[in-house]
Write a structure and sequence with these properties.
Elements (H helix, E strand, L loop, with lengths): L5 E5 L9 H17 L3 E6 L8 E3 L6 H11 L4 E6 L6 E5 L7 H11 L8 H21 L9 E6 L6 H7 L5 E6 L3 H9 L3 H4 L5 H7 L3 H13 L2 E4 L5 H8 L5 E2 L15 H20 L10 E7 L9 H17 L5 E7 L4 E4 L1 H34 L15 H14 L10 E3 L6 H9 L9 E6 L14 H7 L2 E3 L10 H7 L4 E4 L3 H7 L10 E4 L6 H16 L3 H14 L5 H4 L1 H10 L10
Helix pairs in contact: 2-4, 4-5, 5-9, 11-13, 11-16, 12-15, 12-19, 13-14
Length: 602
């Protein structure tokens, strides 16, 4: 079914990957463009990142093209073309540099109450971008022929929201939606306040914004939320935050989905898992086996990932639960080894040279082994084929020359060490201030041979050019067994949903938007690959114990049980495809346009 209304979607992350909103907009694009077709436009800033995702096209001979030509004549730098993603949406990018916005900042203060006299460099760029977008929509509003059907404007986050108060005050003929994915002040407060949720109703937003030096940004966000015809957020857990920090309760919840086709393995879940797990095995051999070895057939790979927010991302709870899991596995005499990967991003000097060295030696040993295998195999075949009358197997050592033996011995001597495998792969700047490392040191979870839980802290995101893994992050996820994301503050949280879509069971929490959404679905539970950890009404200690017990249950499950769980996890992920969740955005659009009868999304 096609919609004849027009939709402009405005975001700082159109053709400009900075955070999670880029994933939201990009992943839902196939569903949006299928519905709106040529009546859809994406609007964003023109940056150095845009060039690789943007393709120029000729201006259309319509109202949009006419407005862009008018703005070119006035000195605005505007780029028209398509975003090179699935759906190829028509895209307009505004270069926010080089324009004097002093007068506009005055009007922003007078009409929207934004103290824009002294602002951060980012906020200054946002104001400049917002000014260009405002001029565009003001000029477009005068083109009466363009408004044969409703024209809707979807703004994402404070970085895009500046035009909204002017659109409302000047009574421009648009229907507007403003979506906050996480309030800016909420992120700061949650990161710094251990009693964030209980104190939220009593927060003085203005005082706290001044304290964190984000007053202008918070004022922009509040002004946008109040000026929009419809105000939405991504999860129920965000509603109180919006109410108390922005002063307006959301009209709609618009959950974030995924383009599941990107992840679908077409019944090859187990084959892909085994292949990619073997790649992780290679890393593990290089990282651990120079110090000691363990049975890789009895080894499970757990992981967590995301921005380095020690408390908000639940890294603190994950570490506490791992320490307890280590004790529990020892107490029951388990021979299972759990390797836990922390994948995040931290300022680093370099990869630890010892880690690189052991990885290189392991690769040399592999090459030597392959070469020896070929040479010995060729000699063995020649011997057997020329001695067909003898059934006795020869001594294989006779086929290895002295050079081969010495080469392997030298490699092994270089590899073997009496030091423990490092818990961190890189040399972190100011590592004595790193919370993950400090917990590991204080808990003694330092990769001792007798420990059943090992830690690999990788403070850089995984990519194919990474010399330690040499694989895509999505491939790494598929090779793991369990994703652990017990977040304290997470307005939505893509990581557990991405894990499910990759056939990997995951842990989330009821303080994450995704976890809260799953809890309200009758279809979701541990048997379908998703564990929702209860943190809202639980103490830290109780939640950590629950997490440790769940990880113990998983670690002691059988291989066949884990195989079935991976299949069910991938099947369950279909629930979160944009084809199912885009309806929440469409409901918001119908509401502002006065459409009472809900449309069926095809």
């Amino acid at each position: 079914m096609k919609d004849f209304r027009k939709l402009f979607e405005i975001s700082w992350e159109v053709c400009n990957q900075n955070g999670g909103i880029y994933t939201v907009i990009r992943s839902k694009m196939p569903s949006v463009t299928e519905y709106f077709g040529q009546n859809y436009y994406a609007i964003g800033p023109f940056t150095s990142k845009s060039r690789g995702e943007f393709e120029y096209e000729d201006l259309p001979d319509d109202a949009v093209g006419e407005v862009i030509r008018e703005m070119w004549a006035e000195g605005f730098d505007i780029h028209y073309g398509t975003w090179l993603i699935t759906g190829k949406p028509r895209t307009i990018l505004f270069n926010y540099t080089g324009k004097d916005t002093s007068d506009f900042k005055y009007h922003l203060w007078r009409e929207a109450g934004v103290d824009s006299g002294s602002i951060s460099p980012l906020a200054n760029d946002v104001v400049s971008f917002g000014y260009a977008v405002y001029v565009f929509f003001k000029k477009l509003a005068s083109k009466k022929e363009f408004f044969d059907n409703e024209v809707m404007l979807q703004f994402h986050e404070w970085m895009a929201g500046i035009p909204l108060p002017f659109i409302r005050n000047e009574k421009m003929p648009y229907k507007t939606v403003f979506t906050t994915h996480a309030t800016l002040l909420g992120r700061y407060l949650a990161f710094n306040d251990p009693s964030y949720y209980s104190r939220l109703p009593y927060v003085d937003w203005h005082k706290e914004a001044v304290h964190f030096n984000i007053l202008a940004e918070s004022q922009i966000e509040r002004a946008a939320a109040h000026a929009a015809d419809s105000f939405t957020t991504v999860s129920q857990v965000m509603c109180d935050e919006c109410k108390f920090l922005l002063g307006r309760e959301p009209d709609h919840i618009t959950p974030n989905g995924l383009n599941i086709n990107k992840f679908t393995s077409f019944y090859k879940v187990e084959i892909l898992h085994q292949d990619l797990k073997n790649k992780i095995h290679q890393f593990i051999r290089g990282h651990f086996f120079g110090s000691y070895s363990f049975d890789l057939s009895r080894t499970l790979y757990f992981f967590t990932s995301g921005r380095y927010e020690y408390k908000n991302k639940g890294f603190d709870m994950t570490l506490e639960a791992l320490a307890r899991l280590n004790h529990k596995l020892k107490m029951i005499g388990s021979d299972v080894t759990v390797v836990m990967f922390f994948i995040t991003n931290r300022p680093c000097h370099s990869i630890n040279p010892n880690v690189l060295n052991t990885r290189g030696i392991m690769e040399e040993l592999y090459k030597n082994s392959q070469q020896i295998g070929k040479e010995v195999g060729d000699k063995l075949f020649a011997h057997l084929s020329s001695n067909a009358g003898h059934s006795q197997m020869p001594d294989l050592n006779a086929f290895m020359n002295e050079t081969m033996r010495f080469r392997v011995k030298r490699t092994l001597q270089s590899w073997n060490t009496d030091t423990l495998p490092p818990v961190v792969t890189h040399n972190i700047i100011d590592d004595h201030k790193d919370d993950i490392l400090n917990f590991i040191r204080s808990s003694g979870l330092i990769n001792k041979k007798e420990d059943r839980v090992k830690i690999v802290y990788h403070p850089a995101f995984i990519s194919p050019d990474n010399p330690l893994f040499g694989m895509e992050y999505s491939e790494f996820v598929r090779g793991c067994h369990l994703g652990v994301f017990p977040s304290y503050y997470e307005p939505w949280g893509y990581t557990p949903c991405e894990a499910l879509a990759s056939g990997v069971p995951a842990v989330t929490s009821d303080l994450a938007g995704f976890g809260d959404y799953v809890e309200n679905l009758t279809s979701g539970d541990e048997d379908r690959g998703i564990k929702v950890l209860h943190r809202r009404e639980c103490s830290f200690d109780a939640a950590a114990e629950d997490l440790a017990n769940y990880m113990l249950k998983y670690a002691t499950s059988t291989s066949s049980e884990r195989i079935m769980l991976r299949t069910r996890a991938e099947d369950y992920a279909i629930e979160f495809d944009w084809k199912n969740l885009i309806r929440y955005y469409f409901d918001a659009y119908d509401h502002i346009c006065g459409v009472k009868e809900k449309k069926t999304v095809i």
